[in-house]
Specification:
- The protein has one domain (about 1-105).
- The protein is built from four helices and no strands.
- It has helices at about 1-40, 45-50, 55-65, 65-105.
- The two termini are about 30 Å apart.
Length: about 110
């Protein structure tokens, strides 16, 4: 159980710098995305013009006082925690079954040097 937890924790810790880099890259590209959304000759620009996407996003962020982003972060964190805990529980159950199956084996066990 400790080994599985260590592996999962290590994987999550390794993913954090990558996720942070992606967030930074996204923030750097936001002005370009806004420019594309306002360009009526692009597909995104036409969708924005037709469905007023940029205005809806702006209204949502301002109307909720920024809590939309906080809610998104909480939902993402909850989903990540759920996935990790399901993985740990599933691995633990699988290891328990393997250990139980191994202890019921009729095969003779070989000792060191035997």
């Amino acid at each position: 159980m400790v080994v599985v937890f260590t592996i999962v924790a290590g994987s999550v810790a390794a993913a954090i710098p990558l996720l942070a880099a992606q967030v930074v890259r996204f923030i750097e590209r936001v002005p370009r995305y806004i420019q594309i959304a306002q360009d009526h000759s692009s597909v995104i620009g036409r969708l924005n013009e037709r469905f007023h996407l940029q205005q809806r996003i702006t209204d949502t962020i301002h109307g909720l006082g920024g809590s939309a982003f906080t809610g998104f972060i909480l939902k993402a964190g909850t989903a990540l925690f759920s996935a990790v805990s399901n993985l740990v529980i599933g691995c633990d159950a699988g290891l328990s079954r393997l250990q139980a199956r191994g202890s019921r084996s009729n095969r003779p066990r070989l000792g060191v040097g035997g």
